[in-house]
Design a protein that fits this description.
Helix 9 links the parallel strand 7 and strand 8. The chain has an eight-stranded parallel beta barrel, surrounded by seven helices. Helix 4 crosses helix 5. The chain starts with a strand and ends in a 9-residue tail after the last helix. The protein has two domains: 193 residues, Aldolase class I (TIM Barrel), CATH 3.20.20; 28 residues. It is an alpha/beta fold. It is built from eleven helices and eight strands.
């Protein structure tokens, strides 16, 4: 059975604690912008995230070097310092593809990031990426169709028998997440607001309120099934 994997796209410790308490989370994704937003010690923050989510949950961390050799050095350092189920995020540049090939030979987990086309995703998968991360909303913002790109990636990976999974990113609304799930995207990474929005509906809230009111009209305010 294939499950949709939910990731939280943040470096906020409070948001991570809340999401992992409430929802079936598979891990956390970060990027340099998200990390910088917290304005704190980089390595200390990553170690705190790892402590919150545990060693068995995925943590995706991006390198900053522009050369494959530099990316390898960063990846080794991050593995040594953070540990657990760590995925090294590599942008889909020519140097990035080279780094993916070399990292895979060392047995490291790889997430190819900054993907805007299905061909970028396919090449990353051929280079050894475990996840490919297309930017759904950013593609929409340049007059493309982010969900359609995800669908193309899913088809290409299936056609060539590749085990690489789609980790769709850059969402601004619930409909985008819904459409990615419908077209077979295996995982999504969303911010805290979108994560909450996946469950939110005013009719659900009103139904719960009605249930409580009907119950309390008969059994008394504050009474529940185990204290009648």
């Amino acid at each position: 059975m294939i499950n949709l994997l939910y990731y939280l796209d943040t470096a906020s410790i409070d948001q991570i604690k809340r999401a992992f308490d409430l929802y079936p989370m598979s891990g956390v994704t970060t990027n340099p912008t998200i990390i910088a937003r917290e304005n704190t010690n980089f390595l200390g923050l990553l170690k705190e995230i790892r402590e919150v989510i545990g060693t068995e949950k995925d943590l995706h961390v991006q390198v900053l070097s522009s050369t494959a050799e530099g990316m390898l050095e960063e990846a080794r350092y991050l593995h040594e310092q953070i540990g657990g189920e760590l995925y090294i995020k590599i942008p889909v540049t020519p140097q990035g593809i080279k780094a993916m090939k070399l990292l895979k030979k060392e047995g490291m987990n790889i997430t190819a990031t900054a993907i805007y086309t299905a061909d970028q995703a396919l090449m990353s998968a051929m280079a050894g990426a475990d996840f490919v991360a297309p930017y759904v909303n950013r593609i929409d913002n340049i007059s493309g169709n982010g969900v359609d790109v995800v669908s193309q990636i899913v088809t290409l990976l299936h056609n060539y028998g590749l085990d690489t999974m789609v980790l769709a990113a850059s969402f601004k609304n619930i409909q985008q997440v819904h459409d990615v799930a419908l077209c077979g995207g295996q995982s999504v990474t969303v911010n805290a607001e979108v994560m909450d929005g996946l469950l939110s509906h005013p009719l659900t809230d009103s139904s719960v309120t009605q249930f409580i009111n009907d119950w309390e009209n008969v059994y008394g305010k504050g009474k529940i099934t185990n204290n009648l």
